[in-house]
């Protein structure tokens, strides 16, 4: 009876999560969809991939849409043996973002049930976790892979705790394997990596407990073996994706450096430290886990527009010279964010009540939870400080494997956002339920922690201006007093509003707990009050960053690259800032569409109007020199930095010719100007001169100096390629593209002498095959990043095809591991039921006797 009642409560909780998710996302009821910046960029960059899939009913693992061509492994490609990804798609079947919110709530509910085995506290903890502000910020931005990964954090931890803490080996194995597999399938390795940095403390804690004989060493070893097996199978189910990305990542900006310069040395792995640590959390900024606008919140808070208008008026009234105006301009930055990061969409607000209860939890929770959660929390906060705590950052970048592959250390706070709600509900549960904690101890801790939290908050409210400053060093240097004083007052007002709210919310919580301790308030009422106040707090803060303005009509969400303007379209857009950017891009999009329709051949476009490395409008219509992607091929990124990011009037055109840039777009978004480039090298060409150089630095420097139609720059390491392959000039030789598909190109060549054919296609050493007259031949890299092949005299058919062996190998490993998971799970469940039936039989025999 009790079991059935518990199942009812669980079902009611899941329904409550569904209701909460839909209530937060009410525009989905009218058919509207989220407008997410990164997803708009994805739609542009993945257009060729999506079109290929629809036209040929199969997958291409290479696309020429961005950055001269790159694998599609990180562009939304699908893998045939990826059954675990299909499971993920079924779990995320609800409309976005309802799917994310429901799974965030539900996943933590499972964790709460494992940790405290009480649905009320699990329900409370689920709202604490599922309403963490950072999740709503990344949903608004379109970081879907990140939030998709995070939604499996809690259930994965639940599986691990089932094994280590609850000794439920079979169920723990199933839950751990399933949700780790799903987390890896969500494809945001950085989030998974950060989670396991935190979970390392759980492993250490269990090891210490076993060494101290607080738990049997046998149990620890069995549990660790089960967890290890679960993680191996979870990885195995994603073998296609992991193997392909592991192969790819070595050739990208996350792999080894190729060039040696002032910021890095060739052979060093990962990104340079400046790139890794660019988004580092400030030390004081960490307090915005407790007070959301401690440092102003986000760079674009709603108050910013009114502040800017007032400051412009102050400048107009007080500034009398151009020199003074120029000086003031140097001091302008974000008005509503003054933290240490270059900019931010919002704070990692955890909730005033959640932070307060987490502090209590570190005193009330059992030691088996307390110490590892505390250790993980401290480490992740220190790592989030990044460049503001260089000793630790240097240590991890230099010595901890894979840490240098990831940037933006501030995002490691997702671990805190998981652990704070967990320790909060564990501590709260023991506060109400534990008989080992006497009333005096509870009262003392509640008094000290509550008084300390309220006192600190009050001090910040009263003395905040002198403690927090509310101005950056740059602002203090360049802004005159009449502007600086106004800015500080406005920022302090923003902070004070949120700080007073935090003071109120924590005060209510302290009062509720004191009354409950004195048995003047029912425990259930206390939980309801805490839950409702926390819900109101987080809900209202989250609505600053993800609200109805983030939803647009389906036509805009699914086709953000509009090419025709109209009064109707302008009316639909209204004052929605997101959609206004669509209207602003219409002239450029129309220009790109016209180019693509008039010239259907294969070539690339250089678009300087929208920002070469920060847009995919071009990629949506035609292959682009630029694009928008965090994991570019290293060689192409080197080329961009050398010649494109800071254009040179002599050298940059040479590079554009090399990349078969047939059209260039200059001007501005409203009046784009198309400039044809008749000097583009074409899709392929023969060269008669070879320039051998010794280093990659010489390679990349030389391609900006040579006539690439006549000369190819070859690294000396490939000199042996020409030992039996002479190259002789022939002014009548021709080579032409006859077929283009994303992963297959065909050429016809004619020459009287042996030639070196250079292709305007990015060199990638894994998966590309070149065949001459159906016979596969070796090829080399030329001009730092292009493919080249020796072609004998005569008439020949040349074919390039992308068939990465890693995809086929990974498919069978993925299928095998998924099958192994199913079989082991089935045997485990059979064992449990058989054991239960045997136990029931023994009980019935005892009763009959």
TrEMBL record:
Signal peptide: none annotated. The keyword Repeat does not apply. The chain crosses the membrane at residues 7-25, 98-116, 123-143, 149-165, 170-186, 192-208, 220-237, 348-365, 372-392, 412-433, 445-471, 499-517, 524-541, 812-833. InterPro entries: Uncharacterised_YfhO. It comes from the Bacteria. It holds the Pfam family YfhO. Keywords: Membrane, Transmembrane, Transmembrane helix. This is YfhO family protein. It comes from Chryseobacterium formosus. The lineage of its organism: Bacteria, Pseudomonadati, Bacteroidota, Flavobacteriia, Flavobacteriales.
């Amino acid at each position: 009876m009790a079991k059935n009642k518990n199942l009812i409560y669980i079902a009611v909780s899941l329904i409550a999560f569904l209701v909460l998710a839909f209530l937060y996302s009410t525009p989905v009821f009218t058919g509207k969809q989220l407008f997410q910046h990164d997803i708009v960029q994805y739609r542009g960059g993945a257009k060729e991939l999506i079109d290929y899939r629809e036209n040929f009913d199969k997958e291409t693992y290479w696309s020429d849409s961005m950055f001269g061509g790159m694998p599609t492994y990180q562009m939304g490609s699908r893998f045939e043996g990826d059954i675990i990804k299909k499971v993920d798609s079924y779990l995320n079947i609800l409309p976005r973002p309802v799917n994310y919110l429901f799974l965030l709530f539900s996943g933590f509910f499972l964790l709460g049930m494992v940790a405290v085995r009480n649905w009320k506290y699990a329900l409370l903890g689920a709202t604490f976790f599922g309403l963490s502000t950072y999740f709503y910020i990344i949903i608004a931005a379109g970081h879907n892979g990140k939030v998709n990964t995070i939604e499996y954090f809690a259930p994965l931890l639940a599986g691990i705790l089932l094994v280590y803490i609850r000794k439920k080996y079979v169920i723990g194995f199933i839950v751990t394997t399933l949700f780790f597999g799903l987390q890896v399938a969500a494809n945001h390795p950085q989030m998974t990596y950060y989670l396991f940095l935190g979970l390392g403390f759980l492993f250490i804690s269990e090891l210490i407990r076993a060494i101290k004989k607080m738990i049997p060493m046998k149990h620890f070893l069995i549990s660790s073996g089960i967890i290890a097996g679960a993680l191996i199978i979870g990885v195995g189910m994603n073998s296609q994706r992991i193997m392909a990305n592991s192969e790819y990542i070595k050739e990208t900006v996350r792999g080894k450096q190729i060039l040696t310069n002032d910021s890095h040395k060739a052979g060093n792995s990962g990104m340079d430290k400046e790139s890794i640590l660019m988004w580092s959390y400030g030390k004081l900024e960490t307090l915005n886990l407790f007070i959301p606008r401690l440092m102003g919140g986000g760079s674009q808070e709603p108050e910013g527009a009114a502040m800017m208008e007032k400051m412009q008026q102050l400048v107009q009234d007080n500034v009398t010279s151009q020199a003074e105006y120029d000086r003031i301009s140097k001091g302008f930055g974000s008005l509503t964010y003054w933290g240490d990061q270059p900019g931010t969409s919002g704070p990692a607000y955890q909730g005033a009540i959640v932070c307060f209860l987490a502090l209590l939890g570190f005193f009330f929770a059992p030691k088996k939870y307390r110490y590892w959660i505390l250790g993980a929390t401290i480490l992740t906060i220190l790592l989030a400080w990044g460049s503001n705590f260089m000793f630790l950052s240097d240590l991890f970048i230099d010595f901890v494997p894979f840490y240098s592959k990831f940037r933006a250390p501030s995002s490691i706070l997702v671990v805190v956002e998981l652990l704070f709600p967990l320790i909060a509900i564990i501590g709260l549960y023991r506060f109400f339920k534990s008989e080992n904690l006497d009333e005096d101890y509870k009262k003392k801790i509640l008094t000290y922690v509550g008084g300390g939290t309220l006192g600190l908050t009050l001090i910040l409210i009263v003395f905040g201006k002198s403690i927090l400053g509310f101005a950056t060093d740059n602002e203090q240097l360049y802004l005159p007093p009449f502007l600086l004083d106004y800015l500080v007052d406005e920022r302090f007002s923003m902070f004070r509003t949120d700080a007073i709210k935090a003071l109120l919310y924590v005060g209510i919580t302290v009062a509720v707990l004191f009354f409950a301790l004195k048995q003047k308030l029912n425990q259930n009422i206390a939980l309801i009050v805490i839950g409702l106040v926390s819900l109101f707090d987080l809900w209202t803060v989250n609505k600053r960053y993800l609200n109805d303005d983030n939803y647009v009509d389906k036509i805009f969400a699914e086709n953000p690259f509009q090419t025709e303007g109209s009064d109707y379209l302008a009316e639909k857009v209204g004052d929605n800032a997101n959609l206004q950017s669509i209207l602003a891009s219409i002239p450029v999009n129309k220009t790109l569409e016209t180019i693509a329709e008039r010239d259907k051949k294969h070539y690339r476009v250089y678009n300087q109007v929208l920002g070469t490395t920060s847009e995919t409008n071009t990629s949506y219509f035609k292959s682009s020199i630029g694009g928008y992607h965090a994991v570019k091929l290293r060689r192409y990124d080197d080329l961009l930095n050398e010649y494109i990011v800071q254009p040179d009037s002599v050298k940059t055109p040479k590079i554009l010719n090399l990349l078969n840039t047939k059209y260039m777009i200059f001007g501005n978004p409203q009046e784009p100007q198309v400039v044809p480039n008749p000097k583009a090298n074409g899709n392929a060409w023969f060269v008669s001169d070879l320039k051998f150089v010794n280093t990659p630095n010489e390679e990349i420097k030389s391609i900006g100096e040579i006539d690439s139609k006549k000369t190819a720059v070859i690294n000396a390491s490939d000199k042996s390629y020409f030992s039996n392959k002479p190259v002789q000039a022939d002014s009548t030789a021709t080579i032409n593209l006859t077929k283009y598909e994303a992963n297959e190109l065909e050429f016809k060549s004619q020459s009287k002498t042996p030639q070196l054919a250079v292709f305007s296609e990015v060199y990638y050493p894994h998966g590309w095959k070149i065949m001459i007259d159906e016979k596969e031949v070796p090829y080399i890299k030329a001009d730092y990043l292009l493919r080249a092949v020796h072609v004998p005299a005569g008439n020949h058919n040349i074919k390039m095809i992308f068939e990465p062996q890693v995809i086929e190998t990974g498919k069978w490993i993925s299928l095998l591991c998924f099958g192994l998971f199913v079989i082991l799970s089935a045997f485990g469940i059979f064992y449990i039921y058989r054991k239960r039936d045997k136990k029931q039989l023994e009980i019935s025999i005892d009763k009959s006797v």
